[in-house]
Amino acid sequence: MPLLVQKYGGTSVGTPERIHHVAERIVRTRRAGTELIVVVSAMADTTDDLLELAGKVSSNSHPRELDMLLTSGERISMALVAMAVNDRGQEAVSFTGSQSGIVTDTSHTRAKILEVKADRIREELKRGRVVIVAGFQGVSRDREVTTLGRGGSDTTAVALAAALGAEACEIYTDVDGVYTADPRIVPNARLSYDEMLELASLGAKVLHNRSVEIARRFQVPIHVRSSFNWNEGSRIRKGDLMEEVVIRGIAYDADVAKIALLGVPDRPGVAAEIFREVGGHGVNVRMIVQASGSDSKNDVTFAVGSHDVRTVLPIVEEVRKRLGARAFVYDPDVAILSVVGEGLATSAGTAGEVFAALAEAKVNIEIISTSSITITCIVRKTDAERAVRSLHDALRLEQEA
Q1: In the chain, helix, strand, coil percent, each to 5?
Q2: β partners of residue 130
Q3: In angstroms, rounded to a whole number, what is the distance separating the alpha carbons of residues 86 and 39?
Q4: Count of beta carbons in the 10 Å neighbourhood of residue 373
Q5: ∠ at Cα 11 (61, 225), nearest 5°?
Q6: Nearest CA among 112, 40, 399, 88 for reference residue 244
Q7: CA 83, CA 71: separation in Å to the nearest integer?
Q8: Distances (CA, A) of 51 to 107, 208, 225, 241
């Protein structure tokens, strides 16, 4: 009997009515003759509400306790979905991440999966049950509850599919697939398969980059579908290329903050000292730019996720004092906007088109960074969605077949 992993996001299980709808889909899939593992996220907005609640209780960072708090969201979802499936005559059992055998490292709030010991899942599948797994969480080898970071339920689902040899991993969300831009912003976006990892890592919605990395490494086919209809959606797998298309998509991430160290001494090893210290605390740094200033001083600007700000600001202040830098500034009201495509470095005029489109939309660019396959800008958060729409029209992505 073939094995399938399905993952349902927060919007898909956001209300009792939607949970009933998901349960119907699960039962229908299982009765079609497929062994089934279902991974669920917390109900829509639950994680944000829990983070807000934690902030009201304590202004300090408590990573271990935060993991204990946040894992409750997915546990609520798994139990409710299991109840709804059982009520329809199909046996189901819910498991936490630790019960599922998802073993992680010890990095609270951003743990990485080390291995999957899925013995209990296999036993329940043999009994004919659907296994409902709480996404986003695992257990460290020190037997501590951990979470996998934002988008961790995608990672849970693909990791289980890889470990158990599933035929595919279906990611259910509130859109029909993976697009050249977030279809909630650009309704006429076309399907795009290539550069999925690059798009995901730069903030494209729907799929998380860590899940795509695992899928690529273990060649797990991913099928992105809407939980609100039976449309085909997008299939992401080895060999899905569209070489005739230069621009693959547009991604933006508004869940970031910009930090700039001003007046940094211009000497060898300074950048290493800054980012070794920041990275040593588990903070993922995005888009580093260094600009020459006056009097042999430089300004070093970088972006981090909004969830890392509380951790990184004291570190940056300590580094500033140690280096003798003049000051540092912090700006939470920015977004990272990226155009992704094959051969951008050799595509004459594309950068000019991008910047002209942003100028036409009256979007000011604060920082620009380029690579062979990306043009990335930092813009004001309030301008981000307008910028995506303008770029999508200017680059004529909806016209590509």
Answers
A1: 35, 30, 35
A2: 92
A3: 16
A4: 16
A5: 120
A6: 399
A7: 19
A8: 18, 20, 28, 39
- Show the tokens assigned to 269: 């090893």
Residues β-bridged to residue 39? 7, 133
- 291-296's contacts with Cβ under 8 Å and 24+ in sequence apart are 292/266, 293/262, 293/263, 296/265, 296/266
Measured CA to CA, the distance from residue 176 to residue 153 in angstroms comes to 18
Instruction: Count CB atoms within 10 A of the CB of residue 226.
Output: 17
CB 162 within 8 A of CB 220: yes
Question: Could you tell me which of 339, 346, 340, 382 has the C-alpha nearest to residue 364?
Answer: 382
DSSP-derived 3-state class of residue 371: coil
215 CB burial (10 A radius; 0-12, 13-18, 19+)? buried
Instruction: Write the pLDDT tens digit of every residue in 126-164.
Output: 999 999 999 999 999 999 999 998 778 999 999 999 999
Q: If residue 204 lies in a helix (H) or strand (E), which one and from where to where?
A: none
Distance CA 314, CA 309 (A): 9
Type of residue at 356: A
SS (H, E, C) 22-66: HHHHHHHHHHCCCEEEEEECCCCCHHHHHHHHHHHHCCCCCHHHH
Residues 6+ apart with CB under 8 A from 201: 209
d(CA 171, CA 255): 22
Residues in the chain: 401
Pairing of strands 35-40, 3-8: parallel
Q: Name the E strands within 271-354.
A: 285-292, 297-305, 327-341
For tokens 């899939």, name the residue.
29
Place of tokens 């202040």: 317
C-alpha span between 267 and 61 (Å, rounded): 33
6-58 pLDDT, tens digit per residue, is: 999 999 999 999 999 999 999 999 999 999 999 999 998 999 999 999 999 99
Distances (CA, A) of 362 to 60, 255, 258, 340: 39, 22, 21, 21
